[in-house]
């Protein structure tokens, strides 16, 4: 009888030992990592240029890149101001920005790590321009959409 009790106790101990082993505790957790990315845009226009002394009827040209970097779609606007008529300024570039001598011109483009818009600045001095120094300013604005 002692032997039966001992065997029964051993069986109970083994069963509960296996049950205890098979129901081992586990724990799981996770971490969420979040970042809010801001819209960012940079614009670099070509360097200033001086055509120097010119006679009426003379022509000259200067080219440069307008560089835009953006992580979002953007619009570029070109505005010509100042003495553009007095120096016969014609600004031309890719259709993305447009052509023209005055007023705003807009273009839309997708997000880009870096886009160069090649712009050409042509002057054709009119015979009607009085002698003097004239300055035309081409302003570029880039805005994320």
In words, what does this structure look like?
This protein has one helix at 2-22, and strands at residues 41-44, 59-70, 74-82, 90-92, 105-109, 112-124, 136-144. 14% of the residues lie in helices and 38% in strands. It has one helix and seven strands. The model is unreliable at 98-104 (pLDDT under 50). By secondary structure, the protein is mainly β. The chain starts with a helix and ends with a strand. The longest helix has 21 residues, at 2-22. A four-stranded antiparallel β-sheet has the order 1-2-6-4, with no helix packed on it. A three-stranded antiparallel β-sheet has the order 5-3-7, with no helix packed on it.
Query: Strand order within the widest sheet?
Result: 1-2-6-4
> Which H/E pattern describes the elements?
HEEEEEEE
The count of strands amounts to 7
Assign a percent range to the helix content: 10-25%
Mean pLDDT: 82
The termini sit apart by 89 Å
Proportion of strand residues: 35-45%
Largest sheet: 4 strands, antiparallel
Broad structural category: mainly beta
Radius of gyration: 37 Å
Overall geometry: rod-shaped
Q: Extract low-pLDDT stretches.
A: 98-104
Total of helices: 1
């Amino acid at each position: 009888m002692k032997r039966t009790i001992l065997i029964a106790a051993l069986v109970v101990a083994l069963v509960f030992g296996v049950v205890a082993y098979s129901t081992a505790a586990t724990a799981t957790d996770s971490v969420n990592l979040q970042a809010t990315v801001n819209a960012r845009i940079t614009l670099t226009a070509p360097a200033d240029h001086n055509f120097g002394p010119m006679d009426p009827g003379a022509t000259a040209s200067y080219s440069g890149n307008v560089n835009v970097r953006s992580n979002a779609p953007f619009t570029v606007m070109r505005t010509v101001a100042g003495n553009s008529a007095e120096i016969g300024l014609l600004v031309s570039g890719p259709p993305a920005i447009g052509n023209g001598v005055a007023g705003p011109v807009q273009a839309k483009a997708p997000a880009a790590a870096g886009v160069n818009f090649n712009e050409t600045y042509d002057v054709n001095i009119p015979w009607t321009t009085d002698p003097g120094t004239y300055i035309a300013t081409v302003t570029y604005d880039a805005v994320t959409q």
